[in-house]
Each structure stands twice: as structure tokens, then as C-alpha cells.
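Let us work through a complete example step by step.
Step 1: write down the sequence.
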Amino acid sequence: MEKKKIHIIVNKNFIKGEIDRRIYGSFVEHMGRVVYSGIYEPGHETADEDGFRQDVLEKVREMGVTAVRYPGGNFVSCYDWKDGVGAVEKRPRRLEIAWRSVETNEIGTNEFMKWAKKAGIEPVFAVNLGTKGIENAVSLVEYCNIKEGTYYSDWRREHGVEQPYGIKTWCMGNEMDGDWQIGHKTAQEYGRLAQETAKAMKQVDSSIELVSCGSSKSDMKTYPEWEAETLKYTYPYVDYISLHQYYGGQELGTKNFLAQSLDMEDYIRTVIGTCDYSKAWHRSDKTVYISFDEWGVWSVPDQVVAASVDEKPWQVAPHLSEQIYSMEDALLFSSMMMNFLKYADRIKIACQSLLTNISAAIMTERGGGVWVQPIYYPFMHMANYGRGKVLQSVDEMPVYDCKMRKQVPYVDYVAVHNGERKEVVLFAVNRSEEAPAELTLELQEFQTAGVIEHVAMYSEDKKATNLEDHDLVKPKQIDGSRLESGRVISNLPALSWNMVRIELL
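Step 2: predict the structure and record it as C-alpha cells.
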């Protein structure tokens, strides 16, 4: 089949937005094997003095993760942070209601913060607004951020941590619009609780930033009314509103499956509009930004996850929802992640869900090795090279229609100007499984020196995974791009992820 031809123009002086490093975040929840035998496994041959797997830490750093949301997730809605501090041997074993397991509380606030320092990430903490409320949230801020001389700050010092953590970003609850959530609330109930909790938390530490719960997914019946209603209460006190989104639908076929990133764009634009409506409603001069603090591709049907939770409940760190990703899955993942760059002017935090073992980029074996899924690589490329400013673009692009969507561009892309590295980086997904694409990138007002590299990831089998052969699906450098008279001509293989780095003078 004939190549699809794409023409893109970017100009150095036309900027979409500055990239906040926190969009390259991930998520650690006390769920399944994310924590226990994921990031933490004392006795493992690579475990350090604190029990953290150094082989996993190495992969986290290589991946370029900048921020991590903790400790949940659905878990947080039945969690008392006080269970996870102090002498480990005295901590209670609790029934963990959300995932029907047993939580040993071996890892808690102080242990996670040790891991965060080793990983070089910024913590994003969540508080329990499901079964708890104002006091539990306020006391945790005091414990973490007040230096000394109060009950909870001195309690932290008794636990061996003299200096406050100064945790900046706090999520007020998790998916409170969902009837699956322990302590689920109506928009009005959540709005009032979040309003009063926000006021109290900022009384303790006025420097913190707060994230109000937005919709759990784009097909919630209450979306976007939830955002409009809750922001009536929270807008003056919060800095971000959260969005969550997972996409499955692999059975719909590649064209439909990959088109779902456009639904995500609609979702983002709608919430931006709702935030700006709330800004006007409040007569405010403050802009509320988006924290997309849970996102990913879903490959295991919900009923399978539910069955695995119910089949053998009340285990410690059970194998739960350990999804295996294909090359095809990695393409949708890439397009979802590129959306954070496209809307960098409003999305400032994003947390890929989850870091290890569950819908994860990094997989571990108990007592064994570590390997990475195909989704690891596009995250790594964007996190390490997608820094600086996102460029506005115009394009001529062939499109296709499918049941899911009309007018789907064959190539999804975003271009970034990294001034520090003196390069423009093009990230692109070729959605076509029938043909490669020839992409012409016209760089206006840039002085170009040449193509540094063209890295591509593709496979003859779109369903190929790294489960058995851990290196089966991975990127490689190809001779796919060249510079001609200030234009970069790139050949993108069919069903491929691509990163093209262009050196500037």
C-alpha cells in the first residue's frame, strides 16, 4: 500500500506551553504486588539496607520518573496513615477493604519517603476523604511538614525523622464520584468536605498545593457535572483538579482501539472548559490546572479483576491484575501520554498507573529478576527528551473513519523544543497497520544541524509482548530520518512508536 504522506509545520516563536516535569509521574498504591515484592522485598539479592529492590530503583531512574502519587488509589479511602508509622513490629495488620487483602503496614509514610529519596522523585500524597476526613488529613500534613514543637511533628521526630519532608502536592481523596469507592459521595457532599479540608490543610501549611477529585473516567454519568458542582465549593482553595482514565477495547480492532486517545483529548478539553466556567462563576483571577494522576491502558477485563479479588480474599500482596502489554497497547499508551504534552499549558501533573506489576511498566519476580513492558520505552523517551516547550503545529494529514470515531489522523505526534539540549524532538505514532508514513517536518525560524537519531519501536506481530522473551519488543535506532533544506523527512514504519531528535545550531 502507498505510504501515507504528512506535512507538519512548527515555528520557534509559536509555543503551546511549558512542560512541567511532573507530567512524567507514576503511581504506587498498596495494591497487589506494587509495594511488596514490587519496590520492596527484603531478602532479595538486590535489596538495600532498607529492603528496597535496587534493580527496580535502577529501572525507575532509567525510565525518567519524576513524581509518584502515594498511597492510593482506592486503598487510601480506608487507610489510616497512623497505622504505617512508628515501630514496624507494633504496627497493626488490617483488612484492606478496597482490594480484599491484608495490609501489614510494613511500609508507610517514612519508608516511602526513604524510597522517594533513593528514586529521586517528588512525592504526591493522597489523604483519606472516604472513611476519614479533616482531622486525619490535617494531622498528616502536620506530621510531614511542620518542623517541631507540636504533637505530630514531634511524633515524627520520635520516629527518627528530624527534618520535615515539605511535601508540596496533596490529593484530597480518590475517585469520590465512583460508587465503587469506599465512602463514595455525591458532588455536593464531596465538594463541602473537600472545601473544609482544603481550608484546614492550608492553615497548617499555606505553601502546599491541593488537588480536588475530578471524574474517574470520561464515561461517568456524572461527568462533567461533577467538576462544575464540586468546583463551586473547592475552586478558591485548590490548585488542580484530577482526571483518571483507562482504555481497554483491544477486541474492537486496531483502528478503533488506537482512536481512543481522541476521546481522551475531548475529555481534557471539556474539563479545561469546565474549570474556566468555574473561574468565571467565582469571579476569580486564578487558573485551576489539571492533575491527570491516574492513567493507562487496561488489558484485563474488569470482571476478571473482580473475580481474582473475590476468589482468594485476605492475602498479603496477592497477584492481582498483572496485565501484560503488547506492541499494540504501547501505541495507545504513547498517544495517551502525548496528550499531556499537547495540553502542557493546563496539565501540570500526570501519574502513569501503576509503577510495578499492576498495569505497570516494570515487572518483578519474587526473589527473581526485573523486566520491562513495551510501554516502558515511550515513557522513557518522553520523560528523558520531552523537556522544554511544546511547539504549536499545523499539518496536512490523511485520516480514517472507524466505528469509534470519525476523522482519525493516521499519525499522532507532538514536537518539543528543548533549549538546554539545543534540539527539537518529534514524538510520533503511526496508527496505520497497512502502510508506513512519510512525514515532512518543516522547522521555521530554527537553525538545524542534522538528525541526531531516529528511534523506532514496532513489531511484525502487533500482539507481541515481553512476557517470555523480555527483550522481544523494544526500540532500536533506524536510518529513518534525514535533513533536507531545513526540513526533516522521516519514514515511520507501520504501527510504530517513533522519536526523532534534531540538532540545532
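Step 3: interpret the result. The first strand starts at residue 4 and ends at 18.
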